[in-house]
UniProtKB/TrEMBL annotation:
Entry protein name: N-(5'-phosphoribosyl)anthranilate isomerase
Taxonomic superkingdom: Bacteria
Organism listed in the record: Robertmurraya kyonggiensis
Family note: Belongs to the TrpF family.
Enzyme class: isomerase
Length: 205
């Protein structure tokens, strides 16, 4: 199972996550307790292996501002976590991950509206658009028909429930932030545990 660790804020955590098997790292440029500056993101990204996806997370930001940060930092993917329209998602020259808040089966119908390679399915928004540590009903995905898009599962994932989530939802990738934190800070032991459990699925297949 591919894994994205979101809300990276320092070099040590980023390199550790990659060493333990993370396929993607997320850098939050929207209002959040995990918000990072382009300067610091660039410093971290410059030290990451080429194969790791470097994802910038934005909420209702102007495309020109996003692309300026992309060019400044070396991001490889843009994650749009706000109210962006399908047309808004076509304004970029690098791959786009569109995040959708899921409450009912009706919300899954929005996936087809977006011409993106990746769709991230998250819990309903709380104080922030993501990273709130709340899960939605994964069973909604159990009978979900394949769309041809790469589905990223987010929202309330943790080392304790990641195996259940993968078994029910069977996503392309899982995305965790608060679930590998202690008192609001990334916890290296939790990152290692989460990655070990997620990657174990690859070994048994």
């Amino acid at each position: 199972m591919k894994v994205k660790i979101c809300g990276i804020m320092n070099v040590e955590t980023g390199l550790y996550a990659v060493e333990k098997g993370a396929d993607a790292l997320g850098f939050v440029f929207a209002e959040s307790k995990r918000k990072i500056t382009p300067e610091l993101a660039k410093e971290i990204i410059n030290q990451l292996p080429e194969h790791v996806l470097k994802v910038g997370v934005f909420v209702n930001e102007k495309p020109e501002v996003i692309m300026e940060i992309v060019n400044q930092t070396g991001l490889t993917h843009v994650q749009l976590h706000g109210d962006e329209s399908p047309k808004d998602c076509e304004a970029f020259s690098i791959p786009v991950i569109k995040a959708l808040s899921i409450e009912t089966i009706v919300d899954l119908g929005k996936i087809e509206q977006y011409n993106c390679d990746y769709i991230l399915l998250d819990s309903p928004k709380g104080k922030y658009r993501g990273g709130n540590g709340v899960k939605f009903d994964w069973n909604l995905l159990a009978e979900f028909e394949e769309t041809g898009k790469k589905i990223i599962l987010a929202g309330g994932l943790s080392p304790e429930n990641i195996e259940e989530a993968m078994n029910i939802a069977n996503p392309y990738m899982v995305d965790v932030s608060s679930g590998v934190e202690t008192e609001g800070k990334k916890d290296l032991a939790k990152i290692q545990n989460f990655l070990a459990r997620a990657k174990r699925r690859e070994e048994v297949r």
